[in-house]
Amino acid sequence: MRIGIIKETKVPEDNRVALSPQEIVDLQQKFPDVEFVVQKSDIRVYSDEEYALKGIRLVDHVDDCDVLFGIKEADIESLIPNKHYFFFGHIAKMQPYNKPLLKRMMELNITFSDYEYLVDEKGYRLCAFGWWAGVVGVYNTLRAYGLRMRTFELPKPDKQFTLIRMQSEVKVVELPALKIIVTGNGRVSHGAQHFLDEVGIKQVSPREFLEQEFEFPVYTVAKLPDTVCRIDDESIFDREEFHSHPELYKSNFLRFAKVTDIFIPCHYWGPEDPIYLGKENLRNPEVKIKIIGDVTCDIMGSVQSTLRPSTHKDPFYDYNPCTEMEEIAFSSESNVTVMAVDTLPNALALDTSDYFGKALVKHVINDMLRGNTDESDVINRATILKNGKLTERFAYLRDYAYSE
Ligand SMILES: NC(=O)c1ccc[n+]([C@@H]2O[C@H](COP(=O)([O-])OP(=O)(O)OC[C@H]3O[C@@H](n4cnc5c(N)ncnc54)[C@H](O)[C@@H]3O)[C@@H](O)[C@H]2O)c1
């Protein structure tokens, strides 16, 4: 078997890779009959030379590979018939912009497994970057705070940035008595909490956050049901009902917004779910929040100052609550500064590639190289196309794939 690592082609560029040079060396020792090749790339976090130095073959074309691993969607023009591809496809939620990709993979008899659906039997994701998004989300947001207040300047992450570096940069900064709120309690929120803990910001309970003043920076985590309540009876919260009938619930976030300096949304949001910070809230003079690090990056979702995603190159913009329009970052004290980068983990491409590669080897590649691809429940659950045909689990994509 020959396995290829394909080059990333999406814009803005993604520097992450599915397998680091060391990961490939370790796999080759374990499976000497398998060959790994790496398609040349000048944007990858590990350079071509780093792979070559470990004896890994660099190639221009990956036509002679059986299985191909990428990170983001493969370039349609580069797709090779009859191969097995792995990447984040963004097609299973019927995203309109990726319909041509699905169609082309069907035409070319491709087998396609989507990382997003590599889950255990309980549906828990096995290869996800969310935790890292929380980490970078906090760093970027604190960076925005320093720039806006002109009190400190954290460096913009470059391609070689690491989590350790981010932490050490923030640790030397003296933060005032800020109140920071993180919402949600999933992977992203846990990454955010980890970073805040590591840089010495004290966690307090939502109640303490609401009722007390502190002489040092603090953060709280507002989970369900802290942030929502029922429309008709504010004392009742039924989690199952909330998820099946979100229209019966409203936001209870305003009480937090009145005492918060920095808001880092990390909760899942669906179009029917309560809006935490609507346009009127953002105009409300009682709302104290002036910096929002919107990790969820739902455009005009639960935080309505998020007008568009931003990029690592240009991560911040201002939202003018009166005009409801975007303005240049840090241009007015009455504006809200927004950080809404939608590819946050890419700022730690070294750490995240290593983390992702280890998970991939453990849950996918070991089984595959032992010849168990067809029997692997993890791979089967993530396989959207088998030889160009939709699998049973993803059969619902048929109309989407064939519609004009
Ligand atoms: N900006 C980025 O680069 C980036 C990267 C990864 C994930 N994300 C986004 O971050 C968000 C969270 O991802 P995750 O991996 O932590 O998800 P997760 O499923 O691990 O956690 C989601 C959390 O939100 C809570 N929740 C669910 N429905 C809710 C609702 N209607 N209202 C309030 N809370 C609700 C859950 O209880 C849980 O605590 C997602 O929207 C995801 O797309 C962004």
What is the compact description of this entry?
Helices cover 29% and strands 16% of the residues. The protein contains 13 helices and 18 strands.
Q: What are the defining features of this structure?
A:
alpha/beta; Rossmann fold; eight-stranded mixed beta sheet
Describe the structure.
The chain has 404 residues and is of the alpha/beta class. It folds into two domains: 2-127 and 350-402, Rossmann fold (3-Layer(aba) Sandwich); 130-347, NAD(P)-binding Rossmann-like Domain (Rossmann fold, 3-Layer(aba) Sandwich), CATH 3.40.50.720. It has 13 helices and 18 strands. An eight-stranded mixed sheet has the order 3-2-1-4-5-6-17-18. A hairpin with a 4-residue loop joins β14 (316-320) and β15. It starts with a strand and ends with a helix. The mean pLDDT is 97.
Helix content: 25-40%
Shape: globular
The spatial strand order of the largest sheet comes to: 3-2-1-4-5-6-17-18
Q: What is the level-2 CATH architecture name of the largest domain? A: 3-Layer(aba) Sandwich
State the major sheet: 8 strands, mixed
Ligands in the model, by name, code or SMILES, are:
nicotinamide-adenine-dinucleotide
Any idea how many domains? 2
Q: Would you tell me which CATH topology of the largest domain applies?
A: Rossmann fold
Number of helices: 13
CATH superfamily of the largest domain, by name, is NAD(P)-binding Rossmann-like Domain
How far is the N terminus from the C terminus? 37 Å
* Average of pLDDT: 97
- The CATH class of the largest domain is identified as Alpha Beta
Percent in strands? 15-25%
> What's the β-strand tally?
18
GO molecular function: saccharopine dehydrogenase (NAD+, L-lysine-forming) activity
Family: Belongs to the AlaDH/PNT family.
Keywords: NAD, Oxidoreductase
Pfam families: AlaDh_PNT_N (PF05222)
